[in-house]
Specification:
The structure holds two protein chains of two kinds. Helices cover 76% and strands 2% of the residues of chain A. Chain A is built from 14 helices and two strands. Chain B folds into three domains: 3-238, Rossmann fold, CATH 3.40.50.300; 241-332 and 417-507, 3-Layer(aba) Sandwich (Rossmann fold); 346-414, no CATH class. Chain B has 18 helices and 24 strands.
């Protein structure tokens, strides 16, 4: 087992499994910073995944597929904005409703578009290519794990840099933090909390869209119903563990990715009932959130 | 001559019918420090919120430098050079000082924040006005006095010429107050015009050039601070208005219903209560008087089991410490809280649900509510207390006065032996005031002890059998002969000008 964990492919696979979780965590980070929880990240990823797969399949272009996947993520978050910001519904309940809607919508879209041509719940895609950086990819171990990854991995690094820049060095960043920490203070100087939160949700949708695209256009070459399987929620948990700090959030998402891969990869390597292994990511989430809540309460009291 | 700003005929009526301002007028001269004085609820804050665009007047006009203006939002007021320092700071604790100062008007270089410029400008302002604030510190880490300075910087950076401060000294220590006054004078000398909302006489005399006095939502005119004595200001604030006459039988004090012995409640800086001792007896109305924030609130919180304390607090013979609110109530205490919106009522429930909220669990059969009996009781209570509303009406539909009558109905129907009434008639119309007063007196005559907190002089004098005056967490005076005490004398105790000697108080 140790041999397996220390192997080169383990790290490569952990990163690959972590990417959608990381995108989901970034989505959660931006919305939470602005003071609105987007529990429908899960559903947005799903809709983005099906959109990316189908659009790339029919246009033959992964670029257009990727753009449409992001747009689909944004659209799902705009629905949340409409419900929670415009119509003042509870954001949590709206999010749950939108998740349910997303599950149904994905099946309907696949069936409606592809019925009769392939398995009615899977849709093929044109994959996003991998990128092998010259020289750097020849470095042992990390060369393969970091420098010959899918293009979306590099986009993720860029997203991380942009988020850090956005939050710490732009006016929008100040507005987002104000909307999250003390909206009345913002309102008293003429900021619109609603507008800021809507913009944050757009960025959140974009991140969810990238996560979805990764699942159906990079991780696998097709969309299948249920392929998100809680990664959106796990991303939200990772963000909670990272306490809203971008780097820490990324590291926790990586950890969750590792557990996720451990459960899948371990099925062939380890002599362990795979049903139990499959529960690992969820047990981990549960444990993480419990620890988070405990730490959070302690901080509040102290 | 030099008239910078003028508000005329300002009337503000809230949705629930409460009249906060009635034909109030106010004028401001360039480069002066002007106090808006008045008791709590006199309408000072409302008038200033209208001036800085946070609220819209029902009637009235505002002129700035002779031109009519409409303050439709805080942003408009800011662009016209009017800035407000709120009593509850509008700061983002998680952001550094300089970003708070520039909140909403951040400086940028291209798309990126120009942090260096903002830090430098904050630092320059701090030096110019002698404020020892570190631009890079997180706001949440600063003490209250410095946080207030950040608020002032925030207003300055927006180029405000008129700066309004809402009760700026309420949260400050004497030393911080001294500092603030120094800075406000520096600002005035730099041609800023300053308005401070206050009810502290000393501050008006010491700091201000002119004083506008408000009472019951109306302005009583403006005076030069040097022309009037503190005595005269307090008379104008309190008013020599006729006392509401309430027929009252003589007191026949009975057993002790509440007792405090050397009670201390710590606070930030000076203690909120500092060695308070007193007793309240059955069959009398004991009034805790004082300007808000001098300890009356903490006495109530001690008596009703809401905060911890040092010393001894006994209610109906039992030490309060460690007991739940429910247990204390079960002894026979009723509590009319100050804030009917958050503590007094459940705004999302009906009148009936609010009325039964204190004892529904004692009216059950095998775990089920005795619905019919309770409904009949609620109907009877509404009728007895002249509440305009049906039992199923959501309480949020009621006016302030009717809502308060529901609270009073519920509390006084519990056959209490001790009633704690905290500002029972605040924001309530005259008719309801008289009604609530009658009910309280009827209970007292029936042998119930009543502890009343009130900031309303009329109420104090028409109800109290005995008055304890609080000032800065201590008892400034204990008045047994209420009939022969003047409002002016009470006012002097409340404001800390006079203090009764211990022996005198003991008599």
């Amino acid at each position: 087992m140790l041999e397996w964990i220390l192997s080169e492919s383990f790290l490569t696979n952990v990163i690959a499994y972590a990417i959608p979780i990381i995108f989901a965590a970034y989505a959660s980070l931006i919305s939470n910073k602005a003071g609105i929880s987007a529990i429908n990240i899960e559903g947005a990823i799903s809709v983005a995944a099906v959109t990316g797969a189908l659009v790339s399949h029919f246009t033959g272009s992964w670029v257009i597929g990727l753009i449409c996947a992001m747009s689909a993520g944004i659209l799902m978050m705009m629905l949340l904005a409409l419900a929670a910001l415009q119509l003042r519904a509870d954001s949590f309940l709206s999010g749950i409703a939108l998740n349910t809607l997303a599950t149904g919508a994905c099946l309907l879209i696949v069936k409606g578009v592809l019925d009769g041509r392939t398995d009615s719940s899977t849709a093929p895609s044109v994959p996003v290519p991998s990128l092998k950086l010259p020289l750097l990819s020849d470095i042992p171990v990390i060369g393969k794990a970091i420098f010959s990854q899918n293009l979306l991995f590099y986009l993720m690094l860029i997203a991380l840099a942009l988020i850090v820049l956005l939050l710490n060095h732009t006016r929008l960043g100040v507005q987002i933090k104000t909307a999250g920490y003390h909206p009345e203070a913002g309102e008293s100087v003429g900021m619109s909390t609603r507008r800021t939160r809507a913009i944050a949700l757009m960025i959140c949708g974009m991140m969810a869209g990238l996560g979805g695209a990764y699942l159906s256009m990079a991780s696998l070459g097709y969309f299948s119903a249920g392929m998100v399987s809680g990664r959106g929620f796990i991303g939200i948990a990772a963000e909670a563990m990272g306490a809203g700090m971008p780097i820490r959030t990324t590291l926790f998402a990586l950890l969750f990715g590792a557990v996720d891969y451990f459960a899948v990869g371990g099925q062939t390597v380890l002599s362990f009932p795979y049903e139990l292994l499959n529960t690992l990511p969820y047990l981990m989430t549960l444990l993480a959130l419990t620890l988070y809540a405990a730490a959070h309460n302690k901080r509040k009291r102290g | 001559m030099g008239e910078l700003l003028c508000m005329k005929g300002i009337t503000k009526r809230y949705g629930n019918g409460v009249l906060a301002n009635e034909h109030a007028s106010f004028s401001l001269r360039e480069g002066e420090i002007h106090a808006i004085a008045g008791e709590n609820g006199a309408g000072k804050s409302t008038l200033m919120k209208i001036l800085c665009g946070a609220q819209q007047p029902t009637e009235g006009t505002i002129e700035l430098r002779g031109k009519p203006v409409r303050m439709t939002s805080p942003k408009v007021a800011t662009s016209l050079g009017i800035g407000m320092v709120y009593q509850h700071f509008m700061l983002v604790d998680e952001l550094p000082v300089y970003l708070n100062v520039f909140l909403g008007v951040e400086k940028r270089r291209g798309l990126v924040l120009d942090k260096q410029a903002m830090i430098a400008q904050t630092r320059a302002l701090c030096e110019k006005y002698d404020m020892p604030v570190d631009p890079l510190a997180l706001c949440g880490d600063l003490p209250v006095g410095l946080r207030q300075k950040v608020e002032i910087l925030k207003v300055l950076v927006r180029d405000a010429k008129i700066i309004i401060l809402d009760e700026p000294t309420a949260v400050l220590t004497p030393q911080e107050t001294e500092q603030l006054f120094k800075q406000l004078r520096i600002l005035r000398d730099a041609r800023h015009t300053i308005v401070i909302i206050t009810h502290k006489l000393r501050e008006m005399k010491e700091l201000c050039d002119r004083i506008t006095i408000m009472r019951h939502g109306k302005t009583m005119g403006a005076v030069n601070a040097c022309d009037v004595s503190e005595q005269e200001i307090s008379e104008l604030m309190v008013g020599g208005s006729v006392r509401l006459k309430v027929a009252k039988a003589d007191v026949t004090p009975g057993e002790i219903v509440a007792e405090m012995k050397a009670v201390t409640v710590p606070g930030s800086g000076r203690p909120r209560l500092d060695g308070i001792s007193f007793i309240a007896r059955a069959g009398e109305i004991l009034c805790l008087a004082g300007v808000e924030g001098n300890g009356q609130q903490q006495v109530i919180e001690c008596l009703t089991g809401q905060i911890d304390y040092r010393g001894s607090v006994k209610v109906l013979g039992k030490e309060v410490r460690g007991q739940s609110v429910r247990k204390i109530r079960d002894l026979g205490m009723a509590h009319i809280p100050e804030d009917r919106m958050t503590m007094g009522t459940n705004q999302r429930a009906s009148l009936h649900e609010n009325l039964i909220s204190v004892d529904f669990d004692r009216n059950t059969v095998a775990g089920f509510l005795k619905s019919r009996a309770l409904k009949a009781r609620s109907e009877k209570q509404l009728k007895a207390f002249l509440v305009k509303g049906e039992i199923q009406t959501p309480i949020s539909m009621l006016s302030g006065g009717n809502m308060q009558k529901v609270v009073v109905a519920r509390e006084l129907s519990q056959h209490p032996r001790l009633v704690i009434a905290n500002q029972p008639t605040r924001g309530v119309d005259v008719g309801a005031i008289a009604f609530i007063h009658e009910k309280l007196i009827a209970l007292r005559d029936a042998g119930c002890g009543i502890v009343l907190v009130s900031a309303d002089m009329n109420e104090v004098f028409s109800l109290a059998d005995r008055i304890i005056v609080f000032h800065e967490g201590r008892i400034a005076a204990e008045i047994n002969d209420v009939a022969n005490t003047t409002e002016q004398q009470l006012g002097r105790y409340m404001l800390g000008i006079d203090q009764m000697k211990r022996e005198e108080a003991a008599q």
